[in-house]
Outer membrane efflux protein
Amino acid sequence: MESANLSFKSILILAFLIIATCCALPDVSRAEDHLLTLETAITTALKNNPDIRMARTLIKKAEASVKKTEAVFWPKVTAFSELSAGDAPSAYLFKTIDQRELPPDVDFNDPGSFTNTEVGIMAGISLYNGGKNRLEKQLAQKKLADRTALALQTENDRIAAVIQMFFTALKAREYILIARTSVQTVEEQLDMMTVRFRGGSVLKSDILSLKVRLAEAKKNLVESKNTLATTMTALATLLGHTPGYSFSLYPDPDSTCMVSFPESIDKAWALALEKRPELHRAKQQIDMARTAVSLAASGYRPKVDLQARWYMDSDDFSYNTSKDNYTASLNLAWDLFDGFATRAQIAEARHELERALEARKKIRMQVYQDVKQAYLAHENAQQRLHVAQSSVDMAKESLHIVKKRYDGGAEPITRYLEAELDRTRAGINKAAAFYDGKAAKIEIARAIGTLSRLWSQEK
């Protein structure tokens, strides 16, 4: 009995250890799910970003509007029924005649009361209404093209924002590594100087200077961590993640999104005129305004409708197809005077056309400014990176020499701190120039308008 209990206890202990070990192991699948690369960041944004989803919904709404305008070219068929009763002479005569049961000796002034039930089908179609139906369909189609361009514009902007935010996060992570190195270097030096201070070979002012520099290095580390946290939160918002969603960046400083662009600003500007979604939208809005002018002018034209009606009447629901009725009519209507409403609508549409033309001029100037600024930023980042690479090498060598001279008593503590600060700043400048250069390339593609199309082709 005792051995059985021991065996049972051993099984329980073994099961507990297995469960505890499984709980302690990292969740590989979850870690992979939350590990974000640049590619997964872009695909996630294209799928989940609220602005992109709303823009695509507007496309579907515009497609439905086009189908709605096409409906007027089809006849409208309606089934109807009616139950009526009364003693009005005119209603009595009409309903009784439609029943084909008018008494021969009816008194037209006092025919009496009646009851009537009527069932039937009526159909109608607009043959011509001044071209309004055709123009409304064209307007809906142009609005669909505008919404498609808006979706491309949104994708172009949001992809650029995601990539730039991704690089900003990598830059902030690089700042953290630089700040940690600075903290570690100063702490090691402070430990060494503290030992020497206790031995009386170092001044107290040197210890205080090192502590001040250490406090500044720790402050930079805290600020870098806060910058990374803020950037990650902004990136999560762009990706459409819910609040509190956590993920980590794939540790690849060479992450990039391959883009190509012309060497000169003039060629880039010519390409932007062709590709930039905002300019496509401006053209569509001008076309929409011109169509709206024609649509308003359709109020001066006549309208022609064809209508038909087939029905049966009875006073006791005993319908007979031999007593059915039908009517057909071709109706023409022409507004000779509408209180100058049509003229006012035409004037309103023309003013909107003028606004659309001016808006296109403004957008063209803005696009050119975007292209030029993007090229200048790219050139600036390249020059900064070239200078920063040399500065990092020189700063490291300078710190190495100054540290040796300081350890030998040939340099003051202030010179050592200056050299350490120069190395930190050089590292930060290099990281900033490196990632700013990547972001500048993306900004050029965004300014030209090829970013969303490029990614779609890649996918």
Q: What stands out?
A: Confidence is low (pLDDT under 50) at residues 1-6, 11-18, 20-33. Residues 27-74+129-301+339-458 form a domain with the Outer membrane efflux proteins (OEP) fold (CATH 1.20.1600.10).
